[in-house]
């Protein structure tokens, strides 16, 4: 070992040792301080490359491979290399992590003949690398797998279950109403709840099961060798573990429940994405039914049929928008006393490729559910403003969906149209459903104020179906309330409906708000509404929606008068 003794003391202070490896003879000469680097390893285990290789993990051949990776060189030329590996004397001994840097020299045949270099203990760096690897794979709050690695583990489980014809389950566990904990106590307390729930699930897992944090309030579980019966038992075990004891936090005890959606693999999921989507769908359904419940995904013919319909209708709506086949029909709204037209409500229609129109009740719910309603509302707005610009004496109303009320693109569109067609805004009435009006009064009030800046009026549609107070109507500055037709259509036969409608009309009149009665079916109802002071009526008695422009033929014509 005396061949490299000169710098032993310096190397020892740095936790390093030098070596010369005669590759041909397979003998290694070390500096005198090698024992300080390779603690508890006998000198004979370091004396040759073959013996030293027995201590190395995970790849025993790493040193030999490092000398053979570069192209052959001329005799005597040095080729640098750098490798990292672990060394330990026995399975029970701790691993010493080594960084080896050196050069090898080729013999006459161009193959490695000799190597020399320095080894140093690098435990701290390896620990840092291990920690960084763990952080890249695990959720920092709970210490469980993050979503990326949970999904990878799920894909592996699906493949394994398919190959070996076994059964496993994937569960999504969602903490119920976590937003309430955020609002009541703050995010730090909510984080403490998430961490504690993770621990309670973890201690109830079997060996081989996998737990990960899927999203903010959701955990994903992969339960291997798990039948449907096993899944039911396991789900109750997890749910009980969450709900049975309150969670202590710095702000006091917090009681939470969790809901679970699960799917059996591979029977009902052929890949990880399908398993996740169906578990999420099942979890959503469980939460809608009752917080703290469990549901297992099952095939559903009606749901699958509806989805095929959704796909078809989505394509039809988008195609109709592109082909300009979204059109409007106009339903007259008349003064209750004179029966003279007051304005016309624009109702959306979709001309199908076979020429048959699809009506609003068939279009709007599907468009809202599929996120297409804003595009439809944009088109109806364009058509309505075009009609107002072409007919200076006409007033039109149009109903917009909840999503559109807060859509900045809709605002950009209406502002552009109002500037392009001065005066059109003063003859436009925008109808908002009552349920939208009460969701956020401040936002809706801002929406109404901007519309009124164009001179437009605001109507609350389907009034009476929700819970808007007249005080809120006054606060919002509403001009018109349209009484829900469900209460109007039977006023001739229902004393309760008569009392309700009459009260609404009286209160609106006292607040200076105009009223429209929808779904007026017969003359008897029209007379009642007129006598109660209702301002306008619409419905079958007056005339249903038509694609024709009624004002082009009605002009001074009076619609059906009272007998």
Structure description:
This protein is α/β, with parallel strands linked by helices and 563 residues long. It folds into 3 domains: 8-128, Beta-Lactamase, CATH 3.30.450; 139-299, 2-Layer Sandwich (Alpha-Beta Plaits); 308-547, EAL domain (TIM Barrel), CATH 3.20.20.450. 42% of the residues lie in helices and 22% in strands. The protein is built from 22 helices and 20 strands. Strand 19, helix 21 and strand 20 (536-537) form a beta-alpha-beta unit. The longest helix has 22 residues, at 301-322. The protein starts with 7 loop residues before the first helix and ends in a 9-residue tail after the last helix.
Summed up, what is this model?
The chain is α/β, with parallel strands linked by helices. The chain contains 22 helices and 20 strands.
